[in-house]
Design goal:
The protein is of the alpha/beta class. It has helices at about 15-25, 35-45, 55-65, 90-100, 105-115, 130-135, 150-160, 170-185, 205-220; strands spanning about 5-10, 30-35, 65-70, 75-80, 85, 125-130, 140-145, 200. The chain has a single domain (about 5-220), classed as P-loop containing nucleotide triphosphate hydrolases (Rossmann fold). A hairpin with a 2-residue loop joins β4 (about 75-80) and β5. Bound molecules: cytidine-5'-monophosphate. Cytidine-5'-monophosphate binds next to α2, α4 and α8.
Amino acid sequence: RHNFIIAIDGYSSCGKSTVAKALAKKLHFVFVDSGAMYRAVTLYFLRNKVDMDNTESVLQALADIHIDFVPNTAQTQILLNGDDISEEIRQMAVSEKVSEVSAIKEVRHAMVAQQQKLRSRRNIVMDGRDIGTTVFPDADLKIFMTASPSVRAERRYAELTAKGEDVTMEEVQENLSHRDHIDSTREESPLRQAEDALILDNSNLTQDQQLEIVLNAYYSIK
Ligand code: C5P
């Protein structure tokens, strides 16, 4: 029997990771946050002042980047060349650049290839933008999440200010719409709803309700 793959895609700050994590915990699947990988690459680019317009520099940087997930902690850690960067990649400085970096063809090819390699391991839940369309077009279950822009901005604002980041609601709103625009209009694997995806608008749903909907979908096809 083949490994089971659940793909969760959608706009920025829709709560994809929250649902994906809860699902993975419940089903004992491996959770993979593909956005964290693009954020790690972005952090590397910022730290090393990589010229994004220079393909040579981009390829050189990619060859030097090793990303690992350490799942055996309460919160999955993400390592960039051995360094724990789990917190740093959530900062605004990274969010502001990540969609530009993620639109680079060479970056996408490298990340998609790494994500596809994880398939051989175990049952997985992966969240991102192009998982059901490009990374695993044959995923067993595809969810496409949305929520109203104001709900999304409020959630992200609360999350950032709780961590002590000095941001305004306007900056958060601006960043979300900026990323959604670039993510949906880029040439290489843009954010798209897969035709066979189940749409989940969670503007008015609790986390438990969302989990129940996705679990029901899973049990109905399992
Ligand atoms: O999921 P998260 O919001 O952390 O992702 C950060 C950014 O990474 C997205 O705005 C998008 O530009 C990029 N991304 C992507 N493809 C994925 C996951 C994330 O392009 N599969």
